Amino acid sequence: MTVEQLEKELEMLEIPQELYSIMVGGLPNEKLCITKEDKWQVYYSERGSKSGLKVFETESEACEFFCEK
């Protein structure tokens, strides 16, 4: 799965966009985030910190984990 496919999947499932952040980076308040720094990261951004940070080698692994959340 790619981030483009992930976005389409979330849209199809009618998940409100204010609940997540895809490839924006930073620490948006109260959102599930997926970004790529050195590696792919999935985390919940809350109060200026990355809560529950998971790091992945591949885009596919990160997107699938994000989708499960």
Main pleated sheet: 4 strands, mixed
Low-pLDDT residue intervals, each spanning 5 or more residues: none
Helix content: 25-40%
Strand order, largest beta sheet: 1-2-3-4
Radius of gyration: 11 Å
Distance between the termini: 15 Å
Give the overall shape, derived from the CA principal axes: globular
Number of strands: 4
Mean pLDDT: 92
Number of helices: 2
Give the SSE string. Answer: HEEEEH
User: Which percent band covers the strand fraction?
Assistant: 25-35%
Structural class determined from secondary elements: alpha+beta
What is the gist of this entry?
This protein is of the alpha+beta class and 69 residues long. The protein has two helices and four strands, in the order αββββα.
Give keywords.
alpha+beta; 4 strands; globular; four-stranded mixed β-sheet; 2 helices; 69 residues
